[in-house]
Every structure is written in C-alpha cells, then in structure tokens.
Design a protein that fits this description.
3 helices, single chain, 7 strands, seven-stranded mixed beta sheet
Amino acid sequence: MRDAIGFSMQFFQLSKEKVRCPLIPEVIRLGKELKGKTGIISVRYGKRMLSILSPTLLDEITEDEFVEVIDYDPVKNSLMFIGEQQPDVLLAVHWMVLRAREDINIIVHLYDGKDILNPLERAKKILSSVKGDSYIF
C-alpha cells in the first residue's frame, strides 16, 4: 500500500480481531490528558507494540482505534499486525525507535500540520535524535 506521498509498504494482517491489550485504558487516559492534540501514541508491550491506528485527536481515542504490531522488517518494508484496520505507515518508525532504545517504552508523536517528510526520512531524523553512544547510527 502507498501513503499520500507515494511511500510503499507491505502490511500483513495476522488477525482481524479487536485488540484487547491491558494497556489500552492507560493509553486512552493519557490521550484525554492531551486535550486538543492530534497524534499517535505507541507503547512497548513485551516484544510487541500497541499503537493508535493513525493520527487522531488524542482526547477522542476509543478502544476500536488500536492495533498491535507484531513485527516490522525494514529490509522488506513489511509490517505484521493484529487489528480490525490497517495502521498508518508511520508505525514502522515507532517500531524502529522502540527497538533501538530499550530505555524508551512509549512514544507520543504530536502533529502540528507541518510533518510532511516521508516515513524513511522521518525514521532517519527521529533515530538520529535518540541515538546513544553504543548505537550504530
């Protein structure tokens, strides 16, 4: 599938079941605290990642707007997930940040309307800003 700027990614929906992660109520609570903000929240969940499907008003998140990312392969640019709907391609960037930094457990990505970089450029920009001395970047 291609996003609005032509970036292509393969999605593999492992199950169409509703996501039932125990962290969902906490993410919804956090979203309500960010009243009027638009964005995506992603949370480390064991070896998986719980995320909001796509950018949305965070104080209006419902249980139906979540996806559980099982894996992302940057070489094949393929993302495996569980959920009722296909997620935003940006979740690949969140996945890479959580894999590169074990000390980060949550990503709150807020939008200001100017975020127009393609996902690969976003990933480079984000990863370069969170790199540590022991990382490759």
